[in-house]
Design brief:
With about 100 residues, the protein is mainly α. About 70% of the residues lie in helices and about 0% in strands. The longest helix has 26 residues, at about 70-95. The protein starts with 7 loop residues before the first helix and ends with a helix.
């Protein structure tokens, strides 16, 4: 059995061309993933759940009997931060379709 001769120049040229093909960067891959997610039924269900949680956080009574002013303030700030983060998630996914 004889070996098939290999054209090393052609092989090296092909490797160099393959190496110069631009790769999708991580941001494009994440953007595409979010676009796919935003069109799914699962996202619609999750978004509805997140929106219900935001409403619940709006209605949370931050004052329990015996709470100090500091404790009330901490509870309020924590609920506001949670709402902002949840709203950011919704806005980030929705923004991929704009």
């Amino acid at each position: 059995m004889t070996a098939i001769p290999i054209n090393k120049t052609a092989v090296l040229g092909a490797i160099k061309r393959i190496q110069t093909i631009p790769k999708e960067d991580k941001e494009n891959q994440e953007l595409k993933s979010l676009q796919i997610l935003s069109r799914s039924k699962g996202w619609k269900n999750l978004k509805k759940t997140i929106e219900m949680e935001i409403e619940r956080l709006d209605q949370v009574n931050n004052i329990d009997e015996g709470d100090t002013i500091e404790t009330i303030g901490i509870k309020f700030v924590a609920s506001q931060l949670a709402k902002e983060k949840l709203e950011w998630v919704i806005n980030s996914v929705n923004a991929t379709n704009e």
